[in-house]
Specification:
With 208 residues, this protein is of the alpha+beta class. The chain is 26% helix and 34% strand.
């Protein structure tokens, strides 16, 4: 499975077309209009899509952000964060942040590739989703103050269209708008994380 994913990630990626399928109403117009020059100013960041086998299935791990006074309060996300000067590159950022947030030793992660970068206007981040795997089921440790919960989710559940829905979101910038989402064990996954998941799904499913 992991070798197949490595091979698929070397091929052309669906990128914006996949992102649009799970983009909130408030993002569709800006996503269609984005150019490289428009996001060149953005702060760089990376997330890790960590894969591992458990009970005969391939899993990934998501985190629940704490509730705070910010745009990503309480959201479900992949572990990750901003690029720091000591990072060699954005892959190193993803591995460092995952180690800090969920306790996975970066030395044990085999990097398989990456998905398309995605710009997040509310926080002005351009994120790179890095895909990696480990050879065993990790022992996760949530970083205090940064992670409120850890969700271990089978890939097939994330990709299952029966788990897709739509919710109404209200915030100060856009008012109330509709957003496609995934609902897993009562947790709602929307926004950039849902857009990244959809691209990963299409990379794998479209090859079948």
């Amino acid at each position: 499975m992991f070798d197949r994913i490595r091979t698929l990630l070397q091929k052309p990626l669906p990128g914006r077309a996949a992102h649009l399928e799970m983009a909130p109403e408030s993002r569709i117009r800006s996503l269609l209009a984005e150019t490289p020059a428009q996001v060149a100013h953005a702060r760089k960041a990376a997330v890790l899509i960590l894969l591992y086998d458990m009970a005969g299935e391939t899993y990934t791990v998501l985190i629940k952000r704490p509730v705070y006074d910010g745009v990503h309060s309480g959201q479900i996300a992949f572990p990750g964060g901003r690029y720091e000067p000591e990072d060699r590159d954005l892959t190193d950022t993803a591995l460092r942040e995952a180690e800090e947030e969920i306790g996975v030793d970066r030395r044990e992660v085999t990097v398989l590739g990456s998905l398309s970068q995605l710009y997040i206007p509310p926080s002005d981040f351009l994120i790179l989703p890095v895909v990696g795997c480990v050879a065993h089921v990790p022992t996760f440790v949530a970083q205090a103050g940064e992670v409120d919960g850890i969700l271990q989710v089978p890939l097939k559940s994330l990709f299952d269209e029966r788990n897709r829905s739509e919710i109404a979101i209200t915030n100060d910038e856009y008012g109330t708008f509709r957003a496609p989402c995934c609902v897993i064990d009562g947790e709602i996954i929307w926004g950039a994380t849902a857009m990244v998941i959809n691209e990963f799904r299409k990379v794998i499913d479209d090859a079948d």
